[in-house]
Amino acid sequence: MAQAPTPANAAPAWRQFVFFDVVPVKDIHDLGSSPEVFRKTPEISTIVSSSVGLIVADIHGSVYLVNRDFEIANSWIAHTGGRVTHMAERRGILITLGEEDTARHPFLKVWDLQTFDKKTGAPLLLRSAKVQSGNRPHPVSTIALSATLSYLAIGLGDGTVILYRHLDQSIYSTSGSLSTLPKPRVIHESATEPITGLGFREPTEETPHVYLFIVTTNRTLCYQASGKGSGGTPTVVDEIGAGLGCATMDWKAREIVVARDEAIYCCGTESRGACYAYEGLKSRIHTHRNYIVIVSPPFTPTASAASATVRNFVAKSVAPSGSEIAKVTVFDPENKFVAHSGTFPEGVREVFSSWGKLYVLSNDGKLMCLEEKPTSAKLDMLYRKGLYLLALNIAETQKLDESHIADIHKQYGDHLYTKGDYDGAMQQYIKTIRYVQPSYVIRKFLDAQRIHNLVTYLQELHSLGLANSDHTTLLLNTYTKLKDVSRLDSFIKRESLRVTGEEGKDELPFDLDTAIRVCRQAGYFEHASYLAKKYERHEDYLRIQIEDAGNYKDALMYLRRLGAEAAESNLARYGRAMLDNLPEETTDLLIDICTSLALLTIETEEAETSPVKQASGGPSYLSYLALNRLPTASASSPVDTVPTPTAALPTPAKPTEPARRDSVQDASRASNSPPGTPTTATPAKAQAANTVKRPSPRLYFAHFVDHTGHFVRFLETVARKRWGQTLENTSEPLPVEADPNADEQAEKRDQVAVWNTLFELYLSRPPSASDANPNSKALALLQNTTLPYDPTHALILCSTRGFTPGLVLLWERMGMHEDVVRFFMDRHHDGDADASSEVVRRVRQYGAGRPQLYPLVLRFLTSTPALLAKHRDDVVDVLRVIDEEKIMPPVSVVQVLSRNGVASVGLVKEWLMARIQNARQEVDTDQQLIASYRSETQEKLRQAEELADPDRPRVFHVTQCSACQGGLDLPAVHFMCNHSYHQRCLAENETECPNCAREHGMIREIRRNNERLADQHDLFLSEVREGGFDALASGFSRGTLNMSRVDDVAA
């Protein structure tokens, strides 16, 4: 009998756990006993698990199919008069090997467990043949069946291994007899080494061939059963063998596990693999999932045994001394711990796995189920013992999902945090990212002493692309508080993580807006500008350079690189600040933007000399981090420095340029170079075309409020380069490049706005030594008729600014001559002595086209004695023109002159006498006309009376036809109007003189029109209001006022 192992040769003290519960299995009909099939345990020869249930065979040749309740579902005699020695099942096909009384050699039978005989109820027997190798019979020691039924290997007690190839084809073939099987091939012979184990290594993607492991008592061999190179001699992979039942395939069917007393060995197809030192006698092994079940031979337990399980058994046992027990150990080789260890006083008959559970059948027929505890219960046991690494290994072995593994890391991290191992805890917390809220970890490391661990966690969040804006803010503030410029450089210059989105854009590992904002708040302007420039945040970059760093030169060059469209909106915001600091350069840029149709060019700049820098930075809002408690040495941590990119284009420093506000990194940086910015800014995508759209100059007018001189230069240059318009050019505009995309109406409005603004600027310019007449340009602008300014706007400006030449010029051009005259009259009243002469000159200039000016001037010149004395001759000339042009009646002239006592009668004596004489002549002429009209009227009345008298004969003396002008002959037609015609020259039935008919028709039409107008009283009244007596006389002549007409209408 075997003895219990002593402490001297005991197995190493591996961790031992109780991960399995021992539960007795009872018969479903008799809960006081074991299942019926196991009551005659000594007669059971072999047990295998299959796809249709548990299969049990006995020494009488019978086979039993057992269901989950361990009831016998079916049974049949497989080997008559013998016993079943080995079984193997794949895909519903059962292979049995057994002995029969009728044959010396073992029998191999193939059964179809899915098809049953209707008479006997037994599965269909597909094949039955003898297993024979040589003439002498040898018992079968072990068998192995491949998963695809393609290969069957049988090991014999004499060291021979025979192999059946293409067994599946033979089984499923309908041709052939019951004994037809592929011809077996002897692949191994070893007379001194019985075969103790066989196992097939199934093909995988890496190794697409089938291999057969052969284990003897002294060696382990490997035979290639399929593929190129198959059929050769088995190769020795290890010089270690095993006893019968101590070799089996691992749970992945990749290696064969060989159990020896000193250790457990795993052998692959080429050499020995892992080795697990586990000393002790072993009678058999079995694989259950990732576990190896080790069964020891019966031995006598002692209180001094190395195994605690044995010692506990001795302490609790009441059995007589000298009784033997068997020990079953469930071992996890990958994680190297014992999951279960139990003793069986009656010994172990079989160990098998079925329905995902492990079963142990003792020699006394008792069936025990080793139920594995839930994973959560196992992990709790490990947590209590602080075995977190082992818990992680178990979780990975059992293929737990990521969330469960992350929970283990969280528990492990909490454990290390409690022990004060913050570095180790952070390493565990990092592995919980995606499954544990970041705030849970961040709150634990907000203390300044643990801020470096917090940085590590936040960096990992960003590298995985899981950080939000708050995380970015916190990380950047920790960098700035620690003044860790090298890490800050590395962080902001980190490349994008991956390509995402439909457009395939790179995704940053941090929130860009937050990073820029925090760097600005902390005073790290160069870092903020680097990010803004690299990722084309044009507004942010300009805001940093202008508002924070005061680097106007770089901002100006950046604007020029952006191009017209991108610079348009930014200049609208920062144009005034740029003009305050760089007026000349900014004006040039604005001119180029408003006039150039091509991309803007960048001039080469000289190297900039850095001024003396002083650190200045604003406090961060995360002051609660209490970083002031950090020692000085901790301010700089050993991190890898990242090479800085090329710096931005340098610019020469001018004495007039304000000093830059530098980043706080310049004071904290010792040897690290500042983060550079890319040398070129990516131009706007809209400028890919050959031409760019020029913005309206009016967008930038407001920026020149305090820069009048530059404003004038800007407007003049834009007008010249964009539209070819100058003050000096009075003919056609200068030739310029046409813009095919220009809006004509918008361009016209821009031209008017530019010249209106220029005119206002010309008027507002103060006099200087070089320009004695500052308004000369304003006058030249008004005199240039080709320039598209607004006259009304210019008139208002001239009036408000008191620009007399321009005001007069505009009034003249607009035909407002009376306003010009009145203007000089007002000037005279204001004390200008020369204004009266200007009034006389203007009336002579405008009088030909504006006669109404003479009465105005006459009234003005006779308004005061001084004016009359000065311009007596001019008054006479005015009266002469009034007389000649009949501008005013004499009565009106007298009324004008007599309104005050300035003008005397002697002044207008001659003029009045001439007017009276002319009036008398006109009266005589009118009287003569009246007399002639009366005599003519009397003559017409007489003729009418004669024509109306029927008794008065009429004598016609006409000798010429009024139509054809020929001599009048008979027949002839005479009309009372003294017109005669040939009868042939008149139309048939003509009763009216053709010549007089036309004239009478016109008269009748006029009378009809007058009659219609007589009913339009509103029109007549409006004519009276406008024409006075003339309208009444005209209405009387048309018969509108005739009473007879009123009577006719009433009738």
Automatic annotation (TrEMBL):
GO cellular component, one term: CORVET complex
RING-type domain span: 961-996
Annotated CHCR repeat ranges: 429-587
Short name of one Pfam family: VPS11_C
InterPro entries: CHCR_PEP5_VPS11 (IPR057308), Clathrin_H-chain/VPS_repeat (IPR000547), PEP5_VPS11_N (IPR057307), TPR-like_helical_dom_sf (IPR011990), VPS11 (IPR016528), VPS11_C (IPR024763), WD40/YVTN_repeat-like_dom_sf (IPR015943), WD40_repeat_dom_sf (IPR036322)
Subcellular compartments: Endomembrane system; Vacuole membrane
Region Disordered, annotated ranges: 634-692
CDD domains: RING-H2_Vps11
The reaction(s) this protein catalyses: S-ubiquitinyl-[E2 ubiquitin-conjugating enzyme]-L-cysteine + [acceptor protein]-L-lysine = [E2 ubiquitin-conjugating enzyme]-L-cysteine + N(6)-ubiquitinyl-[acceptor protein]-L-lysine
EC number: 2.3.2.27
One Gene Ontology term of the molecular function aspect: protein-macromolecule adaptor activity
Sequence intervals crossing the membrane: none
GO biological process: endosome organization; intracellular protein transport; organelle fusion; vacuole organization; vesicle docking involved in exocytosis
Metal-binding in keyword set: yes
Chief location category: membrane
Annotated Low complexity bias: 634-656, 678-691
Family to which the UniProt record says this protein belongs: Belongs to the VPS11 family.
Matching PANTHER family: VACUOLAR PROTEIN SORTING-ASSOCIATED PROTEIN (PTHR23323), VACUOLAR PROTEIN SORTING-ASSOCIATED PROTEIN 11 HOMOLOG (PTHR23323:SF24)
Name of this protein: E3 ubiquitin-protein ligase PEP5
Species per Swiss-Prot/TrEMBL record: Lentinus tigrinus ALCF2SS1-6
